[in-house]
Structures
1.
Amino acid sequence: MPGSAAAQETILILGGTREAADLAKELVASKPEARIITSLAGRTKEPAPLAGEVRTGGFGGIEGLMQYLRETGVTQLIDATHPFARQISANAVEAAKQAGVPLDIRTRKPWAKQPGDSWIEVETLEQARDTIPPRARVLLALGSQHIRLFASREDVHFVVRMIDPPEEPLDLPDHALVLGRPGDTPAVETMVLIAHSITHIVCRDSGGNAAYAKIEAARELGLPVIMVGRKG
């Protein structure tokens, strides 16, 4: 009696980072017989093209993710999400355990402070907000869901960079909106900082190369970076 064919290798990447996109491209090239799926949260309206299949939207918590793993026949789960996407990462651990699917965690390492860096290290976004000095001009390098927290700082001018235009006006009393992705080089980021007369940057310690150019630019210009660590 002929044996049944082996189940297709199916890899689900929890993505949304440049590293996840690079990983998908690598796996599609190295495993042509496998099914490679990247899951995106859906916050960006027009994400950059990805190799393999793309799934957009949430899973519905641990139960929803576990059900998806089973129904799709996922044989490996890779968490390559943003280091601050704590909920989906926690869900991935539990869902993988319950579904009996191996989990590979690819969280980016924090940035290492370099000579010349002027970091003001805080634990929470609230502390970052309260640390900004009066009359500062701040590049707010955060996700759109965190912007409203800074609305109480009426004494600060914010420059907000977003990939997509906001669906509603930003709840900031004094701000400028810059649409586009972060610059790939320190030179590009330096031009942005100078053009807007930035005095401070507020960001989270997301690690990786994709958002590091602004840190290098701040170092070159001697600008303080209010850095939110991963403990908060």
Note: DSSP finds six helices and eleven strands in the chain.
2.
Amino acid sequence: MSTPILLEAIGIEKYYGKFAALGGVDLKVRANTVHSVIGPNGAGKTTLFHMLTGTKSVSGGRIVFDGHDVTQEPDHRRVQRGIARSFQVTSLFLSLSVRENLRLAAQGTAPTKAMNCWHEPEGPRACADTVASVLAKLGLESFASTPAGNLSHGQQRRLEVGMALAARPKAIFLDEPTSGMGIDDLEDMKCFIKSLRDEHTVVLIEHNMNIVMDISDTVTVMQQGRVLAEGLPHDIRSDDRVRAAYLGNMITGGKA
């Protein structure tokens, strides 16, 4: 890859008492790529996401994003720098419309404006251009006025990614965005995630190996809080260590 490094983690550690959830993880994510992090349950993938996005603090190591040391910065500050994420469990305002969900997400980059409940969301506060752009990317224009709770599960997962996009991020972290999706929705979501790298950098946790192998530029495999292997999808597919530790016969199948 010739694109510059946007995010670098150096020796990231996370301890809970004496238990090392992360035992010194190094990671380099290049701009405008899809970088997938895979591994068995308990490997430390989501913990790593928490460290990189600032949801939780590191026990040791250093994180550099877009040339800035963000190791000690809280999550809202990292959002302002251009980091956004979705979560494994869908987190939407179910009674609000699709448009309102996206507006609140767009306003969230400036908390003082987002929490201003005394004025109607008009003019710049409506974030109309951002909302319209994200709606178009999601293909949800016809559902703009629909309460999020009335969407299908696949549409809700897509909307949650859209809420991360509404923050206008440089890097978007997606934690199992296809979780619970039916077959009909998987192909659309796969193509959608792949398209994001045109304007964003994507860091992805995903258990569906067909998706990982089809859309990733780089795959990092974790095991017991450490990096086991990293490389191009075809290299990971043929790595005996990865097969033994995680993928096994599922390397050519669906979920692992």
Note: The mean pLDDT is 88.
3.
Amino acid sequence: MGEGIEIHRGIYLVGGPNLTHSEDATVFLIDCDGELVMIDSGAGRSVSRIEQAIRNLNYDPADIAAIILTHCHIDHIGGAPHFVGNFGCSLVAHELDAEAIEKGDPLQTAANLYGSVFPPTPVDVKLEGDEEILSFGRQELRCIHTPGHTPGSISVLVDREGTRVLFGQDIHGPFMRAFRSDIEAWKASMRKLLELEPDILCEGHFGIFKSKERVRSYIESYLEQYER
């Protein structure tokens, strides 16, 4: 445990159920010319392991400029207060999920399902609308609103060296009233992601899919499942 995995040049898996803790959704690190960005932060019980994975890649967690939270659930946001408190990075989330994060809502963050508590935590950058582009170093990150699992779910797209990498956490759902899920909005979101034709999909719980064909097949399999 604690060894980060390179997915594409300067893009790494640094946390997840088979790497840091069984409760963690996948956590990714992007090197934007020395300025680091994390995608999600794990459930919170493994922050030291995530830190170590980053250091083992010869990076300093103090260089993390921002954590982009793909949605408000504890397995994705639980480590954020630690990284903010210790390294001063900013938090980014869509405005429609930001309130649950800032209030530490036990239902909407799903902290109650994990026997955990998420402390109210300010969100520094609240994304609005369908898409915003954030720049770190010389890298642009497209933050795309993909509601369905939660109202403020987002996906992050990175184009690097001719390869399109999509961080599409929790494409599979689940969909629950307590999460304010919307299955029809989710279907529209998935069609939007298919139109992007990503080469690599970094999913929140079920792995990393490489090749346009594998990515498309994965997303379409869930669309077909929920069309039945």
Note: The two ends are 40 Å apart (CA to CA).
4.
Amino acid sequence: MRYYPVFLDLVGRRCIVVGGGKVAERKVRTLIKAGACVLVISPDLTKGLIKLKREKRISYRKDFYQKKLIKKAFLVIAATDNKKINSRISYDCNSLRIPVNVVDSPELSSFICPAVLSKGDLTFAISSSGFAPSLSKKIKIDLRRSIIPKYSKFLSKIKYFRKDLKLNCPDNKLRRRLLRYFVNSNISKI
């Protein structure tokens, strides 16, 4: 396993996207969904990013990339169409110990962004370790069709059962056993 899978809590965290094109817009929208405070640095923006700026859902710095602009970032996504700039962003982030994703360059990235599929509280992250993003997207489509609808409904039931257990069963070990029993005895019914 090349990458350590993790889900980050980005709520209220400063995340910077360098670039203003379609790929940058896609990354920005994902960060917004995660609750991040997003700053976009680019001389130009897509219509979608302009709309997000007008709606005050992102901050915008009309500028070319400079190292000083990323110093307070929690994470950075380099989404320019210039390999030299993306490489510079990677170098600067590494020197500042800021996690960086350089789109389409896993070798320059300290993390990669998986294909993500969510419904309710259920989230799947699918990765091919950066080697075949199209395969990850295909798996995402297959999961959306077959698995997500069933399991997201089941998760709702588990959530209420677990909440009930926490209120009525003070013994941690017993709670875990009962929850495991509930899942295993009901899984075939979905």
Note: The first helix runs from residue 22 to 33.
